[in-house]
Amino acid sequence: MAKLFFLLSGENPTLPMSEALAILETEGYTYKTVELMDQVLRLEAPIESVKAVPVRAAFTRVCALELFVSKANYEDIIRVVEETDFKSVLKSGESFVVRINRIKNYADQTINTMDLEIRLGRQILNQNPEAKVNLKQPDKTFIGIITDDKLIFGLKLTEISSKTFSERRPRKKPFFHPSAMPSKLARCMVNLAHGKTEGTMLDPFCGTGSSLIEATYIGCYALGVDAAKRMVIGCRKNLQFFNINAEGLILADARKLPFCKIDCIVTDPPYGRSASTLKSTTKELVHDVLVTAYSLLSEGHRICIASPKTLNISTIGITIGFKHVESHFAYVHSTLTREIAVFEKKRKNRRNIT
Q1: In whole angstroms, what is the distance from residue 90 CA to residue 96 CA?
Q2: DSSP letter string over 145-199?
Q3: With a threshold of 0.90, does the pTM exceed it?
Q4: What is the pLDDT of residue 351?
């Protein structure tokens, strides 16, 4: 187990951490959470586990091997740096650069991040005089994050670009609908549902296809259903635009699905003025869809579903028999905050018969 830290997006207070942990769980890696800080998650996990994060994550920015943690003041930082063995991660002759990021206004404001980069670079060179500083194309990048009045410092292992998600935002797609799920949130929901490579993911309200696109990009077999013909046609246009071949795109009622078994479900049922709720109230529709989902999922498998916060969907899921794993809240506008709820079909207690 290695000491790792993840630099998380600040777009939501809880989703980034849960997504990062869900990715490790989905990929079968064990981990021990060390500390959650503002936009930084520290944990112990196999170092190879970080390979899955840049492929899957929407809300993680950097994965790094932790070298030290200190209080965010010059005296403590320099003392800890002098005790750190940089030769173990920086070979003789390799080039490097030091980058320091400050989250919000944490730490003593007398700390200048550029000055700190220079100081740390000198300390690393003192240990390894044959190493070289290269600001543009270094062999290794050391990254420090100042948050919660601490400096978390380590060797950057991977960096995740958010550019691809911006290229798939709702208005960039040929078929647009105002209720469309943002690509980042859709990806995060697939991860929270434990969508696995070559596993089958279903969206019974596929709409413009955001969840289908994001699930396919991480290797899932995606199935989409929608009761509106216009949405199915529009979804197909979007899939074709991104060269996505879904396993199936079906015009059907989400409460009467032609399936027997699904590995995971990710969905955002319609609500509000711009969407059809199949002649039911939003609460009735969500209840019926959760009942259907319960019959399709095997024990231990998940559904990640969005709904208005006012609906209190966690209570509905528990009443049906699901285990409520977690909920997160995403502000949309003054009259709508989404609750992103994750439910798991409970595992039955089995008695050993001898």
Answers
A1: 8
A2: EEETTEEEEEEEEEE--SHHHHTTSGGGSSS--TTPPPHHHHHHHHHHTT--TT-
A3: yes
A4: 55
